[in-house]
Amino acid sequence: MLGSLWSAASGMKAQQVNIDVTSNNLANVNTPGFKKARAEFQDLMYRTASEAGAPVNNGTRTPIGSQIGMGVRSVGVARSFAQGDFLQTENPYDMTIEGEGFFQVQLGDGTVAYTRDGGFKVDSNGTLVTSEGFIVQPNISVPQGARQVTVTPEGVVTAMIGDQAQNLGQIQLVRFVNPAGLTAQGRNLFKPTEASGDPQTFAPGEAGSGTRVMQGALENSNVKVVEEMVNLIVAQRAYEANSKSISTADEMLGQANNLKR
């Protein structure tokens, strides 16, 4: 059996993964805080007919070897945490992280997850929550009758209660040594893994952090539609080329079978 059949088949499978990842990027182009992903590939084993530098005659050695690859495989899906564009909403509870870091939220089971989606709301108790009702950490409560809620770039939340300005709390952010190691949970949430490292809490604007919070704005996804469309075209052409390889190998096998006639 021709090895090209299996090599081309592995190429088609790899391009299917590529198209799946690219399609998911496009599907989330308007998801706040979404971070685009990119499929990564690795070549498979090689069938070696001769080694480069192998001795031949009279002390000479072959300048090049003879190796034939056996295809490709998908080895991972890397996520880009590059900053997305900002969308002004004028909603006082919408917040954007300008720089590195994540908001931390408490899930229903008591565990903590992390998100770049700052589209927060206030629930019936006045608590700052996500669209799914997960409580922003540290807990910030907006008293009834509060007005002119303000979030400074340093994350300090204040509101006017009557004629007095009252401090409601401090937005804190979390960073990871390797954010690419976070695992996506859906619902715009991430959780740490052994690869991401432990969460490190800091306040926006803290010396050396280079990060601030912007009130009344949301961070769009960092997906570039034109770039993803080009990726789709390239993946489609690569898939098509691999299918041509299979057709060519099949025709060659057919010709070999017809030699007896």
Q: What are the defining features of this structure?
A:
261 residues; 22% helix; five-stranded antiparallel sheet; alpha+beta; 20 strands
Give a written overview of the molecule.
With 261 residues, the chain is of the alpha+beta class. It has 2 helices and 20 strands. Strands 7, 8, 11, 15 and 18 form a 5-stranded antiparallel sheet that branches. A 3-stranded antiparallel sheet has the order 12-13-14, with no helix packed on it. Helix 1 runs antiparallel to helix 2. It is elongated. It starts with a helix and ends with a helix. The mean pLDDT is 93.
Provide a short characterization of the protein structure.
With 261 residues, this protein is an alpha+beta fold.
Please mark out the parts with pLDDT under 50 across 5 or more consecutive residues, or reply none: none
The radius of gyration over CA amounts to: 27 Å
| Strands, total number | 20
Question: What is the overall silhouette?
Answer: elongated
SSE class: alpha+beta
Give, in order, the helices and strands: HEEEEEEEEEEEEEEEEEEEEH
Task: Characterize the main sheet.
Answer: 5 strands, antiparallel
> What is the CA-CA span between the terminal residues?
20 Å
Figure out the total of helices: 2
Helix content class: 10-25%
Task: Kindly estimate the percentage of residues that lie in beta strands according to DSSP.
Answer: 25-35%
- What's the rounded overall pLDDT mean? 93
